[in-house]
């Protein structure tokens, strides 16, 4: 099986390429810079589209950049796929194409309502893909992973890791939240499975089987670094007051950061598991602890 993979230099691409090659999949890396059409192989079995502009947490990117990369390039690549003899197109979208905040549990039936250019550009790409009639024999899978973690990628976990590795008490333990993650190993397993099996076309959330709380993750960080639990249940009223001051004084804790650390974002993977007919190989806690251990190893 020969697969064209866009975005080979990103975190997921660097993990997915060796994962697939170890499972008898030949991967042709494709950069979408310049005239990429000339670099497409003559014959291939499918496309895995990873390339995209990631969410800018500092909010300095122009909105048009997201649509040029996440929407327009996806449209062009998908049109190329439709004209080819390839059978499978896998688009790696994001749960942010559906919602920026989740009050209950996010599933594929939720009406999408993204509030950021990142999510909106991902959704617009999804809508184009789903609007096109697939020729007989072709398959389209839109995978929406939640926050991806794994060795080599601290991402949004970096802030709390920096607290925990020093043994600094975590003062936000009074906030009980639940958040879905997906380990990069589980995501690679899912992509490989969708390449090699016939599942119904459409959109699938990708998340580990269980959500984790920030308190649980902090406990893992303390444990990995040899500290006892240092979770402090500071009154919410005091924390909220400090965060509002942080908005004006640019302190490490402000309202936006407090929200990211304590909000709920639970994603259902029930549709995915039903289609695949089995569970994911890596337990949620096992995968997170492995990621945290890798942070410590990298700094040794």
Description:
By secondary structure, the chain is of the alpha/beta class. The protein has a domain at 2-150 and 183-207 and 268-282: Rossmann fold. The chain is 41% helix and 12% strand. It has helices spanning 11-21, 63-83, 117-131, 158-165, 184-196, 214-224, 236-249, 255-262, 270-276, 284-299; strands spanning 2-6, 26-30, 46-49, 88-92, 139-145, 147-149, 181-183, 202-206. A 6-stranded parallel beta sheet has the order 2-1-3-4-5-8, sandwiched between helices. Strands 6-7 form a two-stranded parallel ribbon. Strand 3, helix 2 and strand 4 (88-92) form a beta-alpha-beta unit. The radius of gyration is 20 Å and the shape is globular.
Secondary-structure-based class equals alpha/beta
**What would you call the shape?**
globular
Sheet with the most strands, sense and barrel status: 6 strands, parallel
| H/E element order | EHEEHEHEEHEHEHHHHH
Helix tally equals 10
Compute the separation of the termini in Å: 39 Å
Beta fraction: 5-15%
Task: Order the strands across the largest sheet as they lie in space.
Answer: 2-1-3-4-5-8
CATH fold naming of one domain: Rossmann fold
Mean pLDDT: 93
Top CATH class of one domain = Alpha Beta
| Beta-strand segment tally | 8
Provide the helix percentage. Answer: 40-55%
Rg of Cα set: 20 Å
For CATH, the homologous superfamily of one domain is named as NAD(P)-binding Rossmann-like Domain
Low-pLDDT windows of residues: none
CATH architecture of one domain: 3-Layer(aba) Sandwich
